[in-house]
Amino acid sequence: MRTLIISFCLMLNTFVALSQSTKVKMMTDTDGNAINAHGGGILYYGGTYYWYGELKSGPTYKVPDSDWENYRVKAGGVSCYSSKDLKNWKFEGVVLPSNKVDKKHDLHTSKVIERPKVIYNKKTKKFVMWMHIDSEDYSYARSGVAISDSPVGPFIYKGSVRPNGNMARDMTLFVDDDGKAYHFYSSEENATMHISLLTDDYLSHTKTDIRILIGDKREAPAVFKYNSKYYLVSSGCTGWSPNEASYATADSILGNWTTQTNPCVGKDADKTFYAQSTFVLPVIGKPGKFFFIADMWNKLDLKSSKYLWLPLHLNANGVPIISNTK
Question: For the whole model, what pTM was predicted?
Answer without folding.
Answer: 0.93
